[in-house]
Design a protein that fits this description.
This protein is mostly helical and about 190 residues long. About 75% of the residues lie in helices and about 5% in strands. The strands form 2 sheets. The chain has a two-stranded antiparallel sheet. A hairpin with a 2-residue loop joins strand 1 and strand 2. Helix 3 (about 115-125) packs antiparallel against helix 5 and helix 3 crosses helix 6 (about 170-190). One of its GO terms (molecular function) is DNA binding.
Length: about 190
């Protein structure tokens, strides 16, 4: 009896293992196909990774080049700034003659670039705003004896300097700029009750 039970169990186990093998064999074809598909995808990903790595290497190389150029530009800027400081030190002591007056070259260098504003800045440097507010370009009969006339030599030098610097500005344009500056100073004096 015991022998029969043992044989029966062996047959059952054998059938069970056969069934498992059958099931495994059925899925093997699908498994191979899946593996091939995964391998193909993996190859594609590896190619993409390689492309990205190459791009990254190019970007890093470009970044290093940009940093190098930036350092060069920074050094050039510092050197230029140092040179300008040295030049300014030299210029600060220099004087420029306008008629009977002499003015610091450094102040002249700070005058604005528009010709009419440049004229105004020069008049401020040569005469001062208070003198300008009490002065005229030319004396006329209607003016009182208290009114000052600006030094003709200084005015002529200013006009010559401005016409040379701002060609083709005419003498009439420079005179108009001087009158405009004087009018502004006169009005400012009236407003402030000087």
């Amino acid at each position: 009896q015991h022998h029969k039970v043992s044989l029966k169990r062996k047959h059952e186990q054998s059938d069970f293992f056969k069934a498992i093998r059958k099931t495994m064999n059925k899925g093997s074809d699908n498994d191979c196909t899946s593996c091939e598909s995964l391998n193909e995808k993996l190859k594609q990903k590896n190619v993409e990774i390689e492309i990205l790595q190459n791009d990254l290497a190019k970007i890093e190389s470009s970044l290093q080049e940009t940093k190098r150029k930036y350092k060069e530009m920074k050094l050039k800027y510092k050197e230029k700034k140092r040179q300008m400081k040295e030049e300014n030190k030299e210029v600060q002591g220099e004087m420029v003659k306008f008629g009977l007056k002499t003015i610091p070259a450094a102040k002249l260098a700070l005058c604005r670039t528009d010709y009419s504003k440049y004229v105004g800045d020069l008049l401020d440097i040569c005469f001062g705003r208070e003198t300008l507010s009490e002065s005229v370009l030319k004396c006329s009969k209607s003016r009182t004896s208290k009114t000052n006339v600006l030094d003709e030599g200084t005015i002529n030098d200013i006009m010559a300097h401005v016409m040379e610097k701002f060609q083709p500005v005419s003498i009439g344009m420079v005179r108009a700029a001087i009158r405009q500056k004087l009018n502004t100073c006169h009005k400012s004096k009236q407003r402030n009750g000087m």
